[in-house]
Amino acid sequence: MKDMLTPYVTDDGRQIGETLMDMRNITLRFGGVEAIKDISFNIQEGEIRAIIGPNGAGKSSMLNVISGFYNPQEGEVWFRGKKRPPMKPFQVARLGIARTFQNIALFEGMSVLDNVMTGRLNHMNASMFSQALWKGRAEREETENREAVERVIDFLEIQAIRKTPVGRLPYGLKKRVELARALAAEPKLLLLDEPMAGMNVEEKEDMSRFILDVNDEFGTTIALIEHDMGVVMDLSDRVIVMDYGRKIGDGTPHEVRNNQEVIDAYLGVSHD
Amino acid sequence: MSADFLYGIEVIINGLMAGVLYALVALGFVLIFKASGIFNYAQGVMALFAALTLVGIMEGEVPFSHLINAIFGTEIHHFGWEVPALLAILLTLVVMIFFAWAVQHFVFRHLVGQEPIILFMATIGLAYFLEGIGDLMWGSDIKTLALGLPQGGSLWVEDMTSGLGGDDFYGFFIDKLDMVATVVAIVLVTGLILFAQYTKQGRAMRAVADDHQAALSVGISLNFIWVLVWSLAGLVALVAGIMWGAKSGVQFSLSLIALKALPVLMLGGFTSIPGAIVGGLIIGVGEKLFEYMIGPLVGGATENWFAYVLALIFLVFRPQGLFGEKIIERV
Amino acid sequence: MLYREAGDFKTSYEEDSQTFPIAFDRYRYWVVLAFAFLVVPFIINDYWANAIVVPFLIYAIAAIGLNILTGYCGQVSLGTGGFMAVGAYACYKLMTSFPDVSIVIHIILAGGITAAVGAAFGLPSLRIKGFYLAVATLAAQFFLVWLFNKVSWFYNYSASGQINAPERTVFGVPVTGPNTEAWAQYLICLVFVTVCAIVARNLTRGSLGRTWMSIRDMDIAAEIIGVNPLKAKLTAFAVSSFFIGIAGALFFAVYLGAVEVGEAFGIQKSFLVLFMIIIGGLGSIFGSFAGAAFLVVLPVVLKVIGVDLLGWPTDLVAHFQLVIVGALIMFFLIKEPHGLAQLWRLAKEKLRLWPFPY
After folding, report:
1. How far is B140 from chain C (nearest CA, A)?
2. Which residues of C touch B319 (CB under 8 A)?
3. Which of residues 85-104 of A touch B (CB under 8 A)?
4. Taking the model in full, what pTM does it have?
């Protein structure tokens, strides 16, 4: 097992840096139900980190803790070397954490362009007065951010649907627009909740390529939840395996694949 | 006991009685909301419409007589007969059931699956429409509803309680009509609960309230259930219309008083029948007490807004209402 | 000239995001403005000003305001009447307390005061959503009307409980009070409506507008991409109330001249403006104008047909109006939730391709 706290070089030669996010002894309860039980793990800069596990294992809850949607009852969240106090989701977003959702959460009443532009909201701070007159800062910001957004649109190859209302798009494209919105924010850490759920093989290949490219070209750290084992093993540098709210495995895909507890969880043994 | 204290008690009792009427209207809201997710703003106007129709039928008025006169230059207004109260009530119920069917068939069937707020705005449109139809059918002048319900203060209660205070206390003044309303409301609520618990349609209704899709998959006709709940809401509206109409005449303001059912619901939670009742009582007592104690200091007429402000403040601290289920947000 | 975008290429992002990307629309916009400013003032008479044009302009401002809150930010308000009353009474107090200051400044300040009141009543919107909020705004409606009725300071202790607009002038021309001429009334409302519409358009196409729309479409997702929901909702309430306050001030000072609060700014007014944006189109500035025009003209047309032509009694026509408005609301919500504006947009899309069907 590699020493997880220090920088390392992956098999394909990418440099992985210091710890970006450190989750320490996280416990999350809903009433009497413990969705996450005392889990610790870290995410290092430049990594693609996967969280896997059977349905109801607490993967999405974990992502929700990272993105600040749930505040855990116990444990600490460290981000970029600082302890993160309990925060609202929008404050977490401003730290540089963006995400996509398992069930697509796009703004259906707006065009693709406007949706992706919402990803830039935290980069725009013209005063209301300037916006009302559409002069000075507001006008300048609009153009600058439009350029940044167009780069993302080019990158994800969705130029043709720029002005289409999101509601009219097919599922696969919606997923891509959602990724574009998250990327537009230029996040330090990108969270992907089942980015390939419900896609056919071809769409999955496209999406995998985009995820690798994002990681490669922008150096974005990525944490993702995925059910397709082939995809997970191919994409990720390190994998966390969860079952019934506990962490049962953590390591490289190869290590995880040979972990007895993981095999039990997936193939099934009696829990007693 | 001091007279002020006793008058305070009297205010509370009268508040409870008024609260019963609020609860009655609120009940109509809850029925429809539980089964279809529609927040029926028109419930108050339905009460007005039911009362108008009842008076119209009893007095043998010709429906749409103003319109007919205007078009054909005729001078008709009454058929010249009078319908006994009980028969008139039954006929009105038939009209309300027809109304329920029409609402479902022409409006809400086309709005299935829309956002709640769109449905809500549609019911505002429905309220305008129904008010206009009511006026067209029966005219907009104030009518008195003479069902022979007892009126005025109960002397019996006054005699029984006059001994409680000193010489300047003459006993509790309690309107007989309010007492009747309370009894009727209790009977109605009991009936509805029994209906929901023990009949086939009642069970189907609860199934729909729980989950539309699941209900559909076991063979319950959503359309039928929705017509049923609108009819029940029509029945509740009729009862509320009779009580209120007998108290203060059948006129437009009746539908505005019925608006008070909205804060009642916000207190009680939209899905809870006990909530509607308790909420109604709290608002009834609260606004009477507030008017009695604080009203004189600020110029009176606080009943206009007290219920809304109370509900607003309450909601900020408990958004799901007293009896509503706790809202857990998910992504 | 044909309605075409072919050949009308955009070479910069500024050009691409302008209000009227199609040249023909741009020309028409200037023609309409020129007609409204240069021709109408010379031909308008008292009847047209009072019955249609001035109320249309004022309601258009109110509808723009409510559309920002409801159409763009998704928060339904039934307190519009109450907020218009705040604008009217604020304007009255300012007019009578500082008679030397220009009425234009008073009207803008009245909008500012209404914005503050609106933001205060918008505070609960963080916790209360959907129709819960709609009912909660009724609290604003009933409380504010009651307040202006009961506290005599607001109407300067006048015996009637009414407020009356004293005469004020702009460039020496009276715009309020009994000596106001129709064209002056018209022009001051036109200036306000033009500025308000441009400001509203600018606010809704930029980052603030996207913040509002993200809250409208999916508030949880909006929060996770970094929108502060409280700030977004409060700015929507404030900006919306600012416009509604201006509309209230104009309605009182320029249009009616004398106001009794329960009568002029009751709950019916809240519904009227809400209906305007439903019929006109939620989330559309143009729709606010269309809806206001429709609901201002409808009663006049019905009156002309019913009372003047057919000789029906007035109250009968009024009842018909209720039925028609109610039915229209339901019809639009069923058939065309985006209102007249969407019908217009579809017509334009057809026109763009005409004479080819696709």
Report:
1. 8
2. 127-129, 132
3. 101-103
4. 0.88
Domain ranges of chain A: 1-96+187-197+221-272, 105-186
Q: Which CATH superfamily is domain A1-96+187-197+221-272 in?
A: P-loop containing nucleotide triphosphate hydrolases (3.40.50.300)
Cβ A62 vs Cβ A224: under 8 Å = no
Mean pLDDT within C312-317: 84
What are the DSSP E strand ranges found in chain A?
8-9, 15-16, 19-30, 33-44, 48-52, 74-79, 82-84, 97-99, 189-193, 221-225, 238-243, 246-251
Using only C-alpha atoms, what is the Rg of chain C?
A: 21
> In Å, how far from its chain's centre is CA A167?
23
Task: Please list every residue in chain C whose beta carbon sits closer than 8 Å to the beta carbon of residue B328.
Answer: none
Among chain A residues, the shortest Cα distance to C73 is held by A109
Per-residue pLDDT, averaged over B156-176, amounts to: 69
Give the model confidence (pLDDT) of A78-132 as tens digits: 999 889 999 999 999 999 999 999 888 999 889 999 999 999 988 888 888 888 8
Summarize the confidence of residues C71-91 as an average pLDDT: 94
Residue B77 above 80 pLDDT? Answer: no
Lowest mean pLDDT among A230-234, B153-157, B177-181: B153-157
> Residue B171 belongs to what domain range?
39-259
Average pLDDT, chain C: 88
Return d(Cα B77, Cα B54) in angstroms, integer. Answer: 16
- The topology under which CATH files domain C44-353 is ABC transporter involved in vitamin B12 uptake, BtuC (1.10.3470)
Chain B residues whose CB is inside 8 A of the A60 CB are: 331
Name the packing angle between helices C229-250 and C207-217 (round to 10°): 110
